[in-house]
Amino acid sequence: MGFNSNNNQNLLSKIATNNGHGENSPYFDGWKAYDSNPYHPTQNPNGVIQTGLAENELCFDLIKEWVVNNPKASICTAEGANEFKDIAIYQDYHGLPEFRKGVAKFMGKVRGDRVTFDPDRIVMSGGATGAHEMLAFCLANPGEAFLVPTPYYAGFDRDLKWRTGVELVPVVCESSNNFKVTKSALEAAFKGAKEANIKIKGLLITNPSNPLGTVLDRETLRIIVSFINEKNIHLVADEIYAATVFNQPSFISIAEIIEEIDCNRNLIHIVYSLSKDMGFPGFRVGIVYSYNDAVTSCARRMSSFGLVSTQTQHMIASMLLDDIFVEKFIAKSAERLAKRHELFTKGLAQVGIGSLKSNAGLFFWMDLRRLLEDSTFESEMALWRVIVHDVKLNVSPGSSFHCSEPGWFRVCFANMDDETMRVALRRIRSFVTAKRQCWQSNLKLSLSFRRLDDIGMAPHMMSPHSPISSPLVRART
Ligand SMILES: Cc1ncc(COP(=O)(O)O)c(C=O)c1O
Q1: What is the mean pLDDT of residues 152-157?
Q2: How open is the CA angle 194-200-203, to the nearest 5 degrees?
């Protein structure tokens, strides 16, 4: 008797069989397209370039230099091996004191030392992913919700909702005011949730923003803190891109705002990680920093499910407590991000492709609204498919970030070398230029196919370089 996979619905839990992981979204589909045909300058020059991954690879030369100069930081070197046993055995789930000290100091440093963080409040988690889930478990019950300004990081739907049963309610922000988080948008979302009988337990902000690459200004941060105080709901501030700010205006942490205005600090929680600022997503160093004692102790107990390995803590502690290295790293990283961002966005601007003005993050928010057949998410998906499968760039469509307007795409720029970036830039530029030429000659898809018929050529026989087979024509289907 064969096994019927439909039985899984009854055999397994609701969590195991629902789609809460979100793996079927275009955000992950683009990654799959890249995985099955990755670009390589010599071995696969026509492959897909990964511009959908927010990774910071621009400063690994500095990291490598530090690692070579600090062999004692590793327990797998002749210089560090004496510590092997003490690091390998069970550790207290509070984390190594030196690690907490290093992280607290680093968090202060990337905020210009304008605020300090208490090492005793540092709680570990498996990346910011684990930190978000941990906070959701601490702050809300299944069915209760967090407000989240749009567009927001696609992973939040998985991180906050999947295993906790918590819901997310969008706060709709629009391009007309550069996606500003306004009091009226917050009030409208809160009111809408109330009318739908959804209990709002908190507001989740990402500053600097993923996907926008912008920072929240002081006035907006004050509005946000007043709003959550007034409603007596929590504020979770995801600040994992704090050190990626490469131009003015500078980053303002929520930790600074709560020093300036009266608020209930028990409602304030920061999520941090070394995945973006240091470029270490593989180390899974995530942090919950809550100003609420009860949340800190509950989260610490929960951290048993996602501790950072002691070997990693040991190495990170040495690195982050090296002031000279940290200062140099932060400055160089910002400098290189600024240069990359400028090269990419200016290169696109030359062919008329705009992007939202930004000064932070590992990506920019590309505006392709004028290339849509019509202003719908179906057209956005049609264009996205062409960009991924024909232009061979894995960009992420705005709809996967819950953007309220079709035509925006996130482009990551810090996870590749200079040459790959130039190829990516060239590909988008020629795509858009070709598309524009196509419009100028008023070439329409129907006409194209009529012409094919005229010359007795079936579509599958087209040359890969034929203008008729070019992606821009197919984008309009
Ligand atoms: C805003 C935001 N929060 C959280 C995460 C998850 O980070 P981590 O790799 O530390 O789990 C990401 C990753 O892209 C992110 O962009």
Answers
A1: 94
A2: 130
Catalytic-residue membership of 276: yes
For 222-267, how does the pLDDT look when each residue is reduced to its tens digit (9 = 90+)?
999 999 999 999 999 999 999 999 999 999 999 999 999 999 999 9
Q: Is the CB of 125 under 6 A from ligand 1?
A: no
Q: Is the CB of 133 under 6 A from ligand 1?
A: no
SS (H, E, C) 374-393: CCCHHHHHHHHHHHHHHHCE
**210 Cβ below 6 A of ligand 1:** yes
Residues 189 and 108 in one domain: yes
Indicate the top mutation candidate among 207, 273, 288 to test ligand 1's pocket, ranked by most ligand atoms within 8 A of CB. 273
Compute φ and ψ for 178, nearest 5 degrees: 60, 40
**Whose C-alpha lies nearest to ligand 1, atom 7?**
128
User: Is 258 one of the annotated active-site residues of the chain?
Assistant: no
Please identify which of the residues 122, 200, 233, 240 carries the catalytic annotation. Answer: 240
Nearest CA to ligand 1 atom 3: 128
Stretch 188-194: mean pLDDT, rounded?
98
Position 216: which residue type? L
Binding site membership of 275 for ligand 1 (Cβ less than 6 Å): yes
| Structural contact between residues 37 and 19, judged by C-beta atoms closer than 8 angstroms | no
Structural domain includes residue 217: yes
Based on the fold, state whether residues 157 and 206 are members of the same structural domain: yes
Q: Does residue 339 share a domain with residue 285?
A: no
Strands 396-397 and 200-206: unpaired
Domain coverage including residue 30? 18-59+330-436
**For residue 4, what pLDDT band results from cuts at 50, 70 and 90?**
low
pTM of the complete model: 0.90
Task: Judge whether 51 lies within some domain.
Answer: yes
Residue whose Cα lies nearest atom 2 of ligand 1: it is: 153
